[in-house]
């Protein structure tokens, strides 16, 4: 820090990766190049979202994706940006995207990674200018693999890295390579992600719950009881939790990383019998980040998200994640603690 508190020794994402190579499990030059390509995709998507309304990019594209979501124009464009960036990097062999029915295996030579992505998370919020993001999980190809579905139908424990970008008032990037979580903020003048949250630790508890309570009538009784308990309905003296729900997992989780609390999307008997959030590119990467920041992530039954294995690329799961003590409280409620 020099005069007038002006920081002159900034840690950019590339500098951070170089400085920490020895602590990164999957540290190879190729992994660094892959992360470099990822940060370019985040910047490109970020800039596109910021000007969307001015260049006729709001509204629906007119198709649904394989999990039944109506695609927005920006879902399609974000997907294209992501695919082209990963393909162009030469470091990715297999790609799964929320917006693609099947996995993509790039034909070009090289590439030792499989990347799964939600190009735009929270896209129902896009046209209102509310924060959205991009979520990514990364696996190394299985030994000897030249790229197949087996490279992604694996336990969450096999991820080597996960990250998300959140396009809010600023653009934020949260990254784990299995050695804690670090947060970066995009300096739009420099065009660089700058380290702003070193070794982020989730507050161990916080009286905030984040859930789409409009679905209450479709929940199991146990879930209804639990949310009522958080609201203090079974005890006149209890202080009720605060409710916060943005409807973009990335934004709800970004708040949870910084303030603490609980985020959940349980299964319901109507719209989402297996939960709504997709394992490979929503539940897994967020669970990895949350655990690496000292929190927990489980499904409705209390099973650890990271221990699950998808059988299809777009498989969904119920999810409860956030501060350790808040998830433990839910586990206690269902008799798993
Ligand atoms: P996506 O925009 O990638 O399809 O994800 C939407 C997800 C997630 O961002 C959010 O937490 C959840 O859907 C919101 O669902 P509801 O509108 O049913 O609450
Ligand atoms: Mn969608
Ligand atoms: Mn999503
Ligand atoms: Mn999406």
Automatic annotation (TrEMBL):
<dbReference type="GO" id="GO:0006000">
    <property type="term" value="P:fructose metabolic process"/>
</dbReference>
<dbReference type="InterPro" id="IPR028343">
    <property type="entry name" value="FBPtase"/>
</dbReference>
<feature type="domain" description="Fructose-1-6-bisphosphatase class I N-terminal">
    <location>
        <begin position="11"/>
        <end position="198"/>
    </location>
</feature>
<dbReference type="GO" id="GO:0005986">
    <property type="term" value="P:sucrose biosynthetic process"/>
</dbReference>
<dbReference type="GO" id="GO:0042149">
    <property type="term" value="P:cellular response to glucose starvation"/>
</dbReference>
<keyword id="KW-0479">Metal-binding</keyword>
<dbReference type="InterPro" id="IPR044015">
    <property type="entry name" value="FBPase_C_dom"/>
</dbReference>
<dbReference type="GO" id="GO:0005829">
    <property type="term" value="C:cytosol"/>
</dbReference>
<keyword id="KW-0378">Hydrolase</keyword>
<protein>
    <recommendedName>
        <fullName>Fructose-1,6-bisphosphatase</fullName>
        <ecNumber>3.1.3.11</ecNumber>
    </recommendedName>
</protein>
<dbReference type="GO" id="GO:0030388">
    <property type="term" value="P:fructose 1,6-bisphosphate metabolic process"/>
</dbReference>
<dbReference type="GO" id="GO:0006094">
    <property type="term" value="P:gluconeogenesis"/>
</dbReference>
<feature type="domain" description="Fructose-1-6-bisphosphatase class 1 C-terminal">
    <location>
        <begin position="203"/>
        <end position="330"/>
    </location>
</feature>
<comment type="pathway">
    <text>Carbohydrate biosynthesis.</text>
</comment>
<dbReference type="InterPro" id="IPR000146">
    <property type="entry name" value="FBPase_class-1"/>
</dbReference>
<comment type="similarity">
    <text>Belongs to the FBPase class 1 family.</text>
</comment>
<dbReference type="GO" id="GO:0046872">
    <property type="term" value="F:metal ion binding"/>
</dbReference>
<dbReference type="Pfam" id="PF18913">
    <property type="entry name" value="FBPase_C"/>
</dbReference>
<keyword id="KW-0460">Magnesium</keyword>
<dbReference type="GO" id="GO:0042597">
    <property type="term" value="C:periplasmic space"/>
</dbReference>
<dbReference type="GO" id="GO:0006002">
    <property type="term" value="P:fructose 6-phosphate metabolic process"/>
</dbReference>
<comment type="subunit">
    <text>Homotetramer.</text>
</comment>
<keyword id="KW-0119">Carbohydrate metabolism</keyword>
<dbReference type="GO" id="GO:0072593">
    <property type="term" value="P:reactive oxygen species metabolic process"/>
</dbReference>
<dbReference type="GO" id="GO:0042132">
    <property type="term" value="F:fructose 1,6-bisphosphate 1-phosphatase activity"/>
</dbReference>
<dbReference type="Pfam" id="PF00316">
    <property type="entry name" value="FBPase"/>
</dbReference>
<dbReference type="InterPro" id="IPR020548">
    <property type="entry name" value="Fructose_bisphosphatase_AS"/>
</dbReference>
<dbReference type="InterPro" id="IPR033391">
    <property type="entry name" value="FBPase_N"/>
</dbReference>
């Amino acid at each position: 820090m020099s005069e007038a508190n002006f920081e002159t020794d900034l840690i950019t994402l590339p500098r951070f990766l170089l400085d920490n190579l020895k602590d990164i499990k999957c540290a190879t030059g190729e992994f660094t190049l892959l992360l470099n390509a990822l940060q370019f995709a985040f910047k490109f998507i970020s800039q596109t979202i910021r000007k969307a309304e001015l260049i006729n990019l709001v509204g629906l594209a007119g198709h649904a994706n394989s999990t039944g979501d109506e695609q927005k124009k920006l879902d399609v464009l974000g997907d294209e940006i992501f695919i082209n960036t990963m393909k162009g990097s030469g470091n990715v062999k297999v790609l799964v995207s929320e917006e693609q029915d099947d996995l993509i295996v790039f034909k070009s030579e090289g590439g030792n990674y499989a990347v799964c992505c939600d190009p735009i998370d929270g896209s129902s919020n896009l046209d209102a200018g509310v924060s959205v993001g991009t979520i990514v999980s990364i696996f190394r190809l299985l030994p000897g693999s030249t790229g197949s579905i087996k490279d992604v139908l694996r336990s969450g424990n096999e991820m080597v890295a996960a990250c998300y970008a959140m396009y809010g008032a600023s653009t934020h990037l949260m990254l784990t390579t299995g050695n804690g979580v670090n947060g970066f903020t995009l300096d739009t003048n420099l065009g660089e992600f700058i380290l702003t949250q070193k070794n982020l630790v989730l507050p161990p508890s916080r009286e905030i719950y984040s859930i789409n309570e409009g679905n209450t009538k479709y929940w199991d009784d146990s879930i209804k009881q639990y949310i009522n308990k958080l609201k203090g309905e079974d005890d006149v003296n209890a202080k009720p939790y605060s409710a916060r729900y943005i409807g973009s997992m990335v934004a709800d989780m970004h708040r949870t990383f910084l303030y603490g609390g609980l985020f959940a999307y349980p299964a319901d008997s109507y719209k989402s019998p297996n939960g709504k959030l997709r394992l490979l590119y929503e539940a897994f990467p967020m669970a990895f980040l949350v655990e690496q920041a000292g929190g927990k992530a489980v499904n409705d039954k209390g099973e650890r998200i990271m221990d699950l294995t998808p059988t299809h690329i777009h498989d969904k799961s119920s999810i409860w994640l956030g501060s350790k003590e808040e998830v433990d409280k839910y586990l206690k409620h269902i008799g798993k603690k």
